[in-house]
Every structure is written in structure tokens, then in C-alpha cells.
Amino acid sequence: MKSWPRTCRDYGCQRWGGKVQLRETDLLITNIGVLATPEGNEARGGSRQGQIRILKDAYIKVKAGLIDQIGTRDQLRAQQITSEKVIDAEGSLVTPGLVDPHTHLIFAGWRQKELALKLKGVGYLEILEQGGGILNTVKNTRAASLQQLQDLAAQILDRMLAHGVTTCEAKSGYGLDLNNELKSLQAIKKLNEHHLVELVPTFMGAHAVPPEYKGKTADYIQLIKEEMIPEVARQGLAEFNDVFCEQGVFSVDESKEILEHGLKHGLSPKAHAEEITALGGASMAAKVGAISADHLIYATDEGINDMSRSGTIAVLLPATSLNLGADFARAGDMIAAGVPVALATDFNPGSCPTDSLQLVMNLAGMKYKMTPEEVLTAVTINAAAAIGRAEKVGSIEPGKQADLVVWDAPDLDFIMYRFGTNLVKMVVKKGQAFAIPKKLKSIFS
Asked: Which of 108, 155, 229, 427 allows an S-S link to 144, with CB 3.0 to 4.6 Å?
């Protein structure tokens, strides 16, 4: 019996028994019904967002964990391409591995008790003001050990991988003091060593003002600037610096100050912007050269145009809008203005406790009216660009990492049409294939 592709019992987290060791391997995937992929090494906006390559009756040749060749069945036969390991895609759709560019992965304590408040109409910022929301998670995260944070996040990553995510951004931001922010980032580093899903770390000390600094926001900002950012940079624990630019949290000027200070220490800026109010965070993010501005539910024309000029990527989070009962971002206007749009789960224990990027893809079609081609670009090359990985992942092209999804679907339209169902048949990470089991034994068999 073949020892591959392995089942879900073999993928995911190594559970701290040793670092993930993916063997450099050769692999041939044949009988691909439809290969669908964007192309290039940069984010795509405007009409280019919907331009993808479709190759029917295709194959992919993997060598040493990288994509070596792609082509048609006729080319495969003509060139007599072979491999020790061959996977028959059985006419299925194959796309690049999905990339989730915005998650709050590291935390302790779920917040299901807030659901009753939301159903009664209590707003997000009101819950925060009462000591709930982010601050409730801060209390639990501070009390958790490094191992506890790792274990919970590993379970989430296992599910993300089973849903097709092969690369994922992960933020700190539930520690809100030096030691606990470092603990959170160290958890991300450990997970990156032990889990198949590759993580890209973001420091978010400016997620909220912690209780001990209530009424002393300026003092907390000094703590972020003078202690947190320098130490995070010194230890090399993050690539990005994010801030919650929102009324009652950090103002536009305060957010700009924090992001510009991070730049001095080599941390690329990101921003939570216009999630609840139109504060001007999108324009601020564009002006500081942020790689992305995220949420953007209430982005103005000025903010969208500023992002278009700066090349800032819009990371949109439709599942958050759904969960909060909020409006949906103006994705169509952003794409028309030339702003590259990426999609992410915003996975977190409060405003968006979903780890399914497939659900996000479905919502983008239903609520943003994005085409299947635009959505695929948004969860692959644009998402990769939003976390600085577009040269490595996000498309199926020779030289890129062999991160792929084999879908239980005949074409791209099908995965947009079937919402609420995990349609992943197999995930390939750096050329290693992992089957996602679907069938239960029937009582009638």
C-alpha cells in the first residue's frame, strides 16, 4: 500500500516532538481537470485582479519542493515526464495553496458569552469599554502559559490546513505588556517550527489600551515605542507592526506615530482602519507606506484613492461584517480604483471566531459581488503580497513553492457555489501531499 498521500492524522502540528521536516521531494500531479492560478510576483488590482490562467487537462511537476513544470496532458505524454510519486487528481480543480493574511491566532479564552450582549444590540466598542472584548482576552492570555497558547493555536492551524490554508499571518496583541507580547510572538515562532502552515508574524501591541493604562494612552504609546518595538525588533520576532486605528482606541495621529516608530526598527506597517467609523485610517496607512490596510468597512473615496496611489493592499474581512451585523466593505469600488483586494478570515475569539477561509471566499462572492476569478486572486497572490510572500507563494508557476490545493470540485465556480462545505480533497505543502478524509463508512455498506 502506498504511504502517501498521508491522511489528516499525519499533517498539522508535530506537537513539539521536533521541528517540521518536509523532505525535498519530486512529485507529479496528473489528470488535473482545471488548473486555475493568478500569475506574477505582485498584487493585482483593477481589471488584472480578475485575470487568471486556466489550464485544462493539466499536470504539475514538482522537484525538490518547488514547482518545476506545468503543462497539458499532451505535453506530459510528448515529453515522457515521469516521477516516482504520482498523484491522479481525478479531473479535479487545482489552485495555489490559500493564504490567510489577517488572523489574531494567539490568544487564550473564547468569548462566547458576549454573544448574548451582541444579540441585545450592545456594540463592539461598548463591550470593550465595559472591560469585555479584547480586554477580556488580554486577561486570559496573560494568565496562559506559552505552551497553552501554542496548543490552542496549533488546533486552529490544523483546521485551517484542512480547509486549504498553507500560509498564514499571525498577530500578537492580546498581551499588551512587554513580557506577554513577547510570549505571544515566541508562540508564533515555535508554531512556525512545528506546524506545516507557514506563519508570518505581526506585532500588534497597539491593539487596545490595557486596563492599567486606562486614561493614560500617551504613556502606553511610550511603552510601545520605547520598550516593546525595540525588543521585538532586537529578537527578530516580527516582520510587521499593526495598530487598531479607531475611535476610542488609537487616533490617526497616534497610529501614525506608532507605525512610523516601528519603521525605524525595521517593522513594516499595517493598519486596522475604518472598521467601525470613518476615521481616516486608510489615508494614514497609505501615507506611511503600509503594505496593507485592513477591514475598511467605512473607507471613504479619499482613502481608497490614497491607497490606490500608494499601492497599499486592501485586506477585506467579510466574515467580521457578517458576525457583527455591520456593513460590507466597498470591494467593487476598491478594485475599480486599482486597489488590490485580498481576503482574510480575521480569525479571533471575539468579532470573528471562524477559521474557514472558504466561508470568506463564499461571502466575498455573495456580499462583495466579486467574481470567482477575483476571489481566487484575493486569497492567493494578493494575500501573499499583503504579507510580503508573493515571490514565494500565491501562484502556480515554475520556481515557486509547491503549495497547492486539490479540490473536490470540477471548476472554480463550484467552490464559490457550494458554501458552508469544506471542499478540499488534498493539500500539498512544499511538495508533500496530505489527503483530507471525507468518507464515513455507511451503515448500509
From this structure: 108
